[in-house]
Amino acid sequence: xxxxxxxxxxxxxxxxxxxxxxxxxxxxxxxxxxxxxxxxxxxxxxxxxxxxxxxxxxxxxxxxxxxxxxxxxxxxxxxxxxxxxxxxxxxxxxxxxxxxxxxxxxxxxxxxxxxxxxxxxxxxxxxxxxxxxxxxxxxxxxxxxxxxxxxxxxxxxxxxxxxxxxxxxxxxxxxxxxxxxxxxxxxxxxxxxxxxxxxxxxxx
Length: 204
Fold this sequence. Notes:
By secondary structure, this protein is of the alpha+beta class. 46% of the residues lie in helices and 19% in strands. It has helices spanning 3-43, 54-80, 95-108, 111-117, 120-123, and strands at 134-140, 144-145, 158-170, 180-190, 198-203.
């Protein structure tokens, strides 16, 4: 299995494991709640000894708290899960194809594919717990030569810039209001034609 396939499968496996864990803990919470009710009823029977009976209440509260925590975790997981998985472009993909895949992944909140396209040394790593751009009306311009990074990248590195005109339907902060038409650009680099293009910079 190649790294691209692993990147596509890993999020799916994680969510399957999360779902299984959620169901397991929910079952434990339900058992704890039922056990608490049974104990409480028995303690409330006429033949029971008078006095405080905190243990049954504690069981019931514990079960409810566990269920609430599990539901909260499941809600966060669903909110941050990608709506779909975008394949990582291969070395045969053009710089424009890579930018298109990156924007598709951003729309789908497929952070795994976005991180596979970004150069981590220059762009860092995105978190799935943070919002990603949702864009539309993408107008890809012709690829341009780019030499501003020649002094910081290894000699012989291929570098291009892909200008893009797009509408940001939903941004990630107040610097780009929603529904803003924006001229943008992505700078991509690769050591040679046997390697994938990766995004090393972006901006106006």
